[in-house]
Specification:
Elements (H helix, E strand, L loop, with lengths): L10 H13 L6 E4 L17 H24 L6 E6 L22 H25 L4 E7 L13 H14 L3 H13 L10 E3 L2 E3 L8 H15 L10
Parallel strand pairs: 1-2, 2-3, 3-4
Antiparallel strand pairs: 4-5
């Protein structure tokens, strides 16, 4: 195990991390996009992005795109490289405000969090479409880990914290249990070559209807490229 520092809330840090990783000339067979914050008060990343959208979504969007060439070189016909992105059941109630992705007009911690998780699902489906169109030996899937007992809940109201403390043993998954579907997506032979899937409890299931809107996927991708400052070559693909 080797640790390389990467702050997903900083575009500069992400680019520095990618340079350091590529300098090692290592293959990249599995990329797990798992960083996240939840229900934080209204605040911005160093790049000026609303924190949920900037860290949960845009950080992973940029990181994945900068590592795509390495992933493509690492995948083979019999062993695809795999991209696993961790979303949440919260995406089912999320709405994507393309004209206000930074939640400037009306900030709601719940709304901003749900939007960031919906964006991750839309991103995964669009990414898989582009990978397939390019004939790449890379798959992209999105995972719902379930309700997991972690520090992600530190910004919820104190009453919720008390209820969580009292009921976690009954209703919440342990971190190990919460990681199981991500691990399944990363290594299981059952999903070899399968991309564009929404996985929950190690099974393929249906995501929100809105996530299958291909025009919305395309528009979010194009806008995301502008926001993180990368070329949108993919817009020329079908």
């Amino acid at each position: 195990v080797e640790f390389l520092y990467c702050d997903l809330a900083s575009m500069k840090s992400i680019r520095q991390f990618v340079r350091e990783f590529k300098a090692k000339n290592c293959p990249l067979h599995v990329l797990v996009n798992n960083a996240g914050v939840m229900l934080v008060p209204e605040r911005k990343t160093e790049d000026g992005f609303e924190e949920h959208f900037g860290l949960n979504y845009l950080g992973h969007f940029l990181l994945t795109n900068l590592l795509l060439d390495t992933l493509k070189q690492s995948g083979t016909h019999s062993h695809n490289a795999r991209i696993i992105t961790v979303s949440s059941a919260t995406h089912y109630v999320g709405k994507l405000h393309l004209n206000d992705l930074q939640s400037r007009c009306s900030y709601s911690p719940h709304g901003a969090y749900a939007q960031s998780k919906l964006a991750l699902v839309l991103f995964t489906y669009r990414l898989q479409h582009l990978l397939t169109a390019n004939g790449s030996h890379v798959t992209a899937n999105v995972v719902d880990p379930g309700v997991v007992n972690t520090e992600l809940y530190k910004h919820v109201f104190w009453v919720v914290k008390v209820v969580k403390w009292m009921t976690a043993w009954l209703f919440f998954k342990t971190p190990e249990e919460g990681a199981s579907t991500t691990i399944y997506a990363a290594v299981s032979p059952e999903v070899e070559g399968a991309g564009g899937c929404y996985l929950y409890n190690e099974e393929r299931t249906k995501s929100a209807d809105l996530a299958y809107d291909e025009e919305l996927q395309r528009r979010l991708w194009t806008e995301s490229c502008k926001m993180v400052g990368i070329s949108d070559k993919a817009s020329r693909l079908p």
